[in-house]
Amino acid sequence: MRFPFRHEKRDADIEFGLFLIPEADDYAQLLTVAEYADGVGLDLIGIQDHPYQRRFLDTWTLITALAVRTSRISYFPDVANLPLRNPAVLAKSVASLDIMTEGRVHLGLGAGAFRDAVAAMGGPRLSDGDAVRALGEAIAVVRAMWSDERAVRVVGNFHTLDGAHPGPTPRHRPGIWLGAKGPRMLALTGYAADGWLPSSSWAPPEFLDEANKRIDDAAATAGRDPAEVRRVYNVSGTITDDRTDHGFLEGPVARWVDDLVALHRDQRVDGFVFWPIEGEPLDQIRRYAEQVVPAVRAETAAR
To answer: I need a surface site. Which of 27, 92, 159, 191 has the fewest CB within 10 A?
Structure first.
């Protein structure tokens, strides 16, 4: 893959990124894609976290390796599997890499799916309700570990701190973004998190309407401005090279531009993380980065 041009990092209302699969056999290509995304002006790289998947590299190790080989793009686990990652240690890992990369790390968190696989690796098998409660406690632990207090305590049923010494402090304030789908998770996002990470595979535009309302209501109840909660949307589909419109996120560049602009305008989505699901992946990534993203930036700026 050639690196045709390089942009300086920019602050923008909308961020654009890539969703990568941490296949162990594809490390060289993952590095190439990360360097390309960094050079072409994308903002984010999200990497899924399934520690029980034998073909996958460890997500946090991979993020670290890619981050130190790039200079401007930010990274986040999309999303970290909380039942298999101690939140206090995870908070320290995030803070450490944030310092090393000068503020290019966020934390995507999930309550944990694939419970049989989690249990097979020694993780807890939690009910839906307990998983949400554990996630809420984990957020408190992470924030405490990022504080400048001398010692911190968090009392919980699943995650606790008992006089732990926080540190180091992150270089910037990493966002805590939740992969939330159910009503309780969406409410937790509104009153405790910095962002929401839905995926188009299970969260079509009509789902976003009701979910955004739940997040906004929970944020308002907690005394927060709902606009503080970022919406970073994992978008999967195919950018075709013909003019045929196959529907939402399936069609030529113009279709993708229209869909992303509409999502930003109507659903307040302010981040798009692209996961190509068909076609040659590197070709799809080029079309997204070099054709779709500049057009969406231009149209939203004009509006």
So the answer is: 27
The burial of 223, by beta-carbon neighbours within 10 Å (0-12 exposed, 13-18 middle, 19 or more buried), is given as exposed
- Alpha carbon distance 82, 254 (integer Å): 38
Q: Which SS3 state, helix, strand or coil, does residue 18 take?
A: strand
CB 185 within 8 A of CB 135: yes
For residues 65 and 24, what is the distance between their CA atoms, to the nearest angstrom?
A: 13
- Indicate if the pLDDT at residue 140 is higher than 70: yes
What span, in angstroms and rounded, lies between the C-alpha atoms of 119 and 185? 21
Segment 205-220 mean pLDDT: 97
Tokens 């992946």, located at residue: 281
Element at 155 (helix H, strand E): none
Contacts 24+ apart (CB under 8 A), 249-258: 249/200, 253/287, 253/291, 253/292, 253/295, 256/288, 256/292, 257/292, 257/295, 257/296, 257/299
Q: Where are the beta strands (DSSP E) in 171-222?
A: 176-178, 195-196
Kind and range of the H or E element at 143? helix 128-145
Residue pair 240/278 in contact (Cβ under 8 Å)? The answer is no
Distance CA 191, CA 92 (A): 23
Encoded tokens for 206: 């009509």
The DSSP code sequence of 191-203 is: HH-SEE--BTTT-
Whether the CB-CB separation of 76 and 97 falls below 8 Å is answered with no
**Domains defined for the chain, CATH in brackets:** 15-302 (3.20.20.30)
Half-sphere CA count of 231, side-chain side, radius 13 A: 26
Q: Model pTM?
A: 0.94
- What residues form DSSP beta bridges with 17? 44, 273
Residue type, 70: T
Q: How far apart are the first and last CA of the chain?
A: 33
